[in-house]
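Protein modeling request. Please complete all fields; requests missing the sequence field cannot be processed.
Requester role: graduate student
Desired output: 3D structure, token encoding
Chains: 1
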Amino acid sequence: MQNPISKFRGGASSLKLGQRMILVFALGCFLPLILVYVYMFQSSNRALVAQQIKSGEESLNVQKEILTNDLNMVTELSERIIFDESRMKIVLNTYATETEIYVDNGESKVFDDYVAEYYRDISNISFYMNPDLIRGDENHFKKVTAALQEKDWYKKTMQVVGQPRWSYYSNVQTGQRSLRLTRALMNGKGKAVGAISIEMNPALSEDYIANQSAHALLVLNGNDVVRANVSINEREVKELCAGLKQQNYNGELVFHGEQCASAGVVISPRYSSDSYTLILMQPYGGLTKNAVRTTLLSLIPLVIAAVIMAGSFIILNRWFTHRITALGKAMRHVVERSAEAADGAIGEAHDEIWELYNDLNKMVVNMQQLSDTAANERIEREQLHSRNKDVEFKMLTTQINPHFLYNTLETMRMLAMINHQKDIEDISVMLTKLLRGSLEAGQELKTLAWEMDKVECYTKIQDYRFGDRIKAVVEYDKSMAENCMVMPFVVQPFVENAYVHGMEDKDEGGRIVIRAEIKRDLFLVVEDNGNGMTKEQLEDVTRFLNDFENLDRTHIGICNVNQRIKLRFGDAYGVTITSAENKGTRVEIRMPLVKRFGTE
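Delivered output (600 residues):
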């Protein structure tokens, strides 16, 4: 039984080109596009959910900072009132009528002024006094009744003398709850005679919670709900605060059957042991719903682009199929050698298909010419090979028997030694070394010491010719030269050029420096202070130096060196010549640094 892959291959092989293009487009474009859409959808949802959670936590921290500043401001206001003796005199003295307050202090509306001054933050200032301290101002001064003494906030305020206590005040008429600070009032004998109550503006805590789309609560001391935009009982409040505390007020909780991203911040007013906890719970269902809606809206341009792309591909596929069919007809006409019919079949569109047809037609027309050209080239190669063999044969026939040459030079050296001709003896020895080296040299690399030794032999022979007119200096590190390998006889042609072309007509002061510089690569440098070259002459030499097809007989030696180096080591290496008229010439031969086998 055929496996699915074999079936697919068999079915695909029978499809036409247009059908294959549609299949390739579906598999190569639409399938990856769908995968990208799915990935983007999931990634965008996760990113948007995380962003909404982070945004809620940031808003929570901002609200914490606002409420903390407001609570601390109310604390400072309470201290400002309590520690101001002139104002506390109005509070603690007994007055029968408001007229007595006017006479004693000159302003009975001092606390109204406070409320007006802090109207954005506080809604009222009240003083709860013992019955024996009667006030005429019922707006700010109220009696402490037996019922009031049983209230939890009043008991806690009286228990902690001087310390601010925080609770909340419920307005009977509006139902609003305001954050409230209370502090015990002390007379001159240190006895608590009442309490001050500063009620904050309800909007400070109500607006933030009311405007939240998520579940938001403000809880006092982890028990009492001051404000909330969701129904919650006392047990749920305690469990919620305990769970948030375990997760450092940031994590996930189940609230009313929904998985929520929960966060909380604790607001601790100054100088007080009370605290408010501001809680924000964002159900994942709502977060995901918002994220999906935002993601779908962001994917609309991608869907439109995919539709446009598919439509464009269908049009392109139809046009391409039509052009391929026309090309097939034209090819049959070309095979039949009917050019006019072929032109009509291919159509008038001068596109790549038309160019392909033209190339095919030219190929058929010129096939015989190409065949003839190939045959001629083969004949020329054979003739060239034959000429090369002739040249090699002529070179071999013109070579002098090396043993005869060595014996002749040795005879000259012996005669010079017998006749005490030291110069002739030295020249014979150095010439013998040069000739022996040239015969030994082949394609194998030699040590740098071997190469520089042959250069020194050549320069010493030239010293006998030119005397003090031209001095040659050979500089290299002999210890390192034994471990570096170079191509043989690459320096001598340039030294010879320095003598012949640069120095021969110098009467005195001629100087040639040959040195080896070992860096990352090996640089062999030949410098002279001779005649140099004009810009035009240097351009000619440089052109012939890199023209391996048309060798100039006057530059064949240096061209040969450059070609040998590039063929062996690559175009990055070779010969570079710089020169200026009457300022000398510098030749730089660059080769890779090749270590002698067995050395590091």
